[in-house]
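Quick question: what would this complex look like in 3D?
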Amino acid sequence: MSTPATESASRVGARATKAGYRGTKVRRQRVRAAWMFLIPMLITLALVAGWPLARTFYFSFTDASLSDTAGAAWIGIENYLVFDDGNWYGILTDPVWWQSVWNTLFFSVVSVSLEVVFGIIVALLLNAEFKGRMLVRAAVLIPWAIPTIVSAKMWAWMLNDQFGIINHLLMALGLIDSPLAWTADASLSMWAVIMVDVWKTIPFVALLVLAALQMLPKDCYEAAEVDGIHPVKVFFRVTLPLITPALLVAVIFRLLDALRVFDVIYVLTSNSTNTMTMSIYARQQLVEFQDVGYGSAASTLLFLIIALVTILYLYLGRRQLGVDE
Amino acid sequence: MTTAKNQTVARAPAAPATRSALASALLNRRLWLGVLGWTLALVIFFPIFWMIVTGFKTEAEAIADPSLIFSPTLENYAEVQSRAGYAKFALNSVVVAFGSTLLALLIAIPAAYSMAFLPTKRTKGTLLWMLSTKMLPPVGVLVPIYLLFRDTGLLDTRTGLVIVYTLMNLPIVVWMLYTFFKDMPKDILEAGRMDGAGTLQEVIYLLLPLTLPGIASTGLLAVILSWNEAFWSLNLTSSQAAPLTAYIASFSSPEGLFWAKLSAASTMAIAPILIFGWLTQKQMVRGLTFGAVK
């Protein structure tokens, strides 16, 4: 009984019972408290995300209009595709819808790519040491913090075909002969929108990249410098691979934002088909044409496309995203 | 590492650069970086600068050849208020932004507490699911929410906007608070528990005071996001509850010329953020990067 082994064993046993006791009662109490704390948030989120989404999904199979949603009749997939009198109808046959799908994808891919490139450049610059770096960092941050509506209006003013300063500057520099209609011209308006979006979002990408840059080990760079390796090569061989996880996070955030883009385009070019995106298309059907059934079908497709892109992206980049930390 | 060191030793005597030449090269590089950095800042800041300048011009000066030489006037600011009732929209923005932020914090603090200190197997999944709702295209839920608001009389009310913004910001607020709470040493809470503090006391007397900076920066982010929001304010409000974003989006003037007035109104709409943001730069950087930059 008094051998050290049994003594320690009985001590452990006593501790275990004590801990077990605490574990059962207090622990259970705490877990219950945890759920109590979580429930308000879970309910609100389920209400705001789940229920309306289900309703939109349901509406897309009805002929509901904004003034009469109660009397909506189930019409199957007619909003999406229907064969009637020798012709196909429905959203999947609407060239404007496909135009807006193309516009959205084009806008997303081009603007996110530009944002990543410029974001990295800005971040590298902000990571270097020079006088007034903090002030520059603050100035660079501003476009991201102000309302998109305001920045879009501001750019609409600068891009104005008659009085805008951009046309004045370009003409003064002799780059163009006559003023350009930036937001009205079919071939220019998409680029104008992309430019404004890139201007607005560089800070976000730059800050995420900057955060990654500041955590990089310094000795790699010292070693590279000592070996006399060209800075460009150092960037592509050392820096870029090390900041890739941060870039992937920035890209997914930006991509998901870009795919549902609304306000920049709404202010700059309104409902013009040259720049119409899926969100603008769906909103026009829902609010302006009051065609809830058809608009809901567009919303549902938009939702499915975004879900698909997200899943694809997470699948391709799951290892680097570091979700499990 | 050893090879690098050996090379330095081997190369050092052969290198032609003297100490002063090296120092001046470094100085030169810093100078160029400084010039580049400042040019970048000026280019990025220019559109905002131009808007502020335009706001102080008369409408005739605004559409004349661009120039920085003019006599500044405040008439646009006065007119924006007297003709369009700017103050009403500004008040709507303030009430809605702060109201929704307070409500979101109230719901999010308990949730973040439970996720940070009482994690279960599903915590990570819940967090990710929660963030994923942020990725929903708002147009996908527009009509159901519109109908709900119409039937409950919330359309074009500030209460309605507060509710929508709270829901919109909730995931990001919970996420941010979660990262702040997780950084807090657990021992302090445990010490409190030993001293017999209940969960509520633990939260009120220990957690909240200790993470106040984090809560403040989360709140700041929520205020800015609500202040900047446009989709819901455009679609759910008209004349009564419209905040500044809806007001500026639909800004026009019967006389045709309105660029100077629009610039003045826009300047006022971003002024609070510029001032607020300047004072709380660090927190804002953290907020805008969802806690990635500390």
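Answer marked as accepted. The radius of gyration of chain B is 26 Å.
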